[in-house]
Amino acid sequence: MLIKSMAARALRLPDGSVRLEGAAWGDGTPLAKVELKIDGEPWQPAALQRHPRAPYCWTFWSYLWKSPAAGEHTLVTRATDTEGKAQPEPEDPVIKLKKTFWESNHQWARRIQV
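Request: output the structure for the sequence above.
Response:
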C-alpha cells in the first residue's frame, strides 16, 4: 500500500489567516512528515497530531496559512514515512496503470477559494 495524504478543509480565522487541515495514512510505518504546496510554491511542513494510535490509523495534520490572497488557490499534499517512502507524484511509474483517486494514492491537487 502506498502512502496517501489529502487536504480535507480550510477554515477562515478571525485574523484573516486560513487553517488547512487534512489526513495522511500508509502501510503501518509511522509517518515522518506531511508537506503542503500552495500554488506551485516550495513545499511547507504541516504540523502532525501526535498521539498513541494503531499502526494503520489516519494521522491528522494542519497548516496555518497566514495572509492568503483572495481568490482560487491550488493545494497539493505529500506524506513521507519514517523509512523515507514518499507519496508518489502523478507521473510516477509505480501508479501509471491506476485510474482512480483511491487506487493511485498519488499527490492530487485540490482547488479552494479564499
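The CA atoms of residues 76 and 109 lie 5 Å apart.
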